[in-house]
Amino acid sequence: MTVYSFYIFDRHAECIYKRRWLPRPTSVGGKPQTQAGLGQTVRAGDDDAKLVFGTVFSLRNMVRKLGGEEDNFVSYTTSQYKLHYYETPTNIKFVMLTDLKSPSMRIALQQIYINLFVEYVVKNPLSPVEHPGGVGVNNELFEGSLEQFVRDQATFR
Amino acid sequence: MSTNKASRIGEEIWKTRVDKVNAELVTLTYGTIVAQLCQDYNSDYQEVNKQLDKMGYNIGMRLIEDFLAKSGVGRCANFRETADMIAKVGFKIFLNVAPTVTNWTSDNNQFSLIFDDNPLADFVELPDDGRAQDELWFSNILCGVLRGSLEMVQVQIEAHFVSDVLRGDDTTEMRVSLVRYIEDEMPPEEE
Predict the structure, then answer these.
(1) What is the pTM of this model?
(2) Cα gap B50→B144, rounded to integer Å
């Protein structure tokens, strides 16, 4: 299994954390691919974060219209990648893009929230309550643990 | 979700997933904060109440995440469920008390929490200056905590104390009113 990228969106619909591990499949868009190497952090506020947010936001609203307020979508699959989604009751959205072989990452995303985000971001007294532009999320403990967590989940090639 | 089920969840989390600290440490620390505020604001108790509420609000905004992480509960279906969740799970796991939910208005938008036991107020006597008894809400930080944490799950409320045993009342009662449910925020328009 390979993890391509990971995003966190806050309740203000802002991307507060974004990380890419491997280049995405080459057929995405006509844009030249940035060769994001292993473990490279890409600055928040880039275009694809907005697209991802728009997608999960609309999809989630549609799912709720069809399946009732309690319903939530878990993942979707294209011929190139799989998008996993987890949303907390506080409207923080966790999104992960992986390859097709990946099993459901819902539990993993929930673990990231409980064991990494709450522990290292929310409980960090020096981190602000809101994270405009990713302030407070991009701390060493969180990033390091996330890196480790994803490594444990995936076998990189 | 019934009140009983909420109680069971609260009990379970309290037993298995919460790090405990000495209760007296909490009581004394909180008492010191209130005493310091009274000093800082020259016994302007209205202002002290306001500051406590504000501190609570800031605590609540973070505490809710810890609450969700520990409890793993989802969204409440209605305000009655929210009330049980606050009383039987929230207060239980953070303060090991479970206030009684009562005095609902007929529209289900207002309820009272009756605290039989309030760990913040142990050993406390309000200042004997003839005003504190009428003006200071010693545990006002709790109102702020509720307001802050519920706001993060899109429930806007108003909370205030209506009686306190410290003031010589028979019970300690907090009144909580639903203001509105907050809509999801949309992403900003592209410029």
Answers:
(1) 0.87
(2) 9
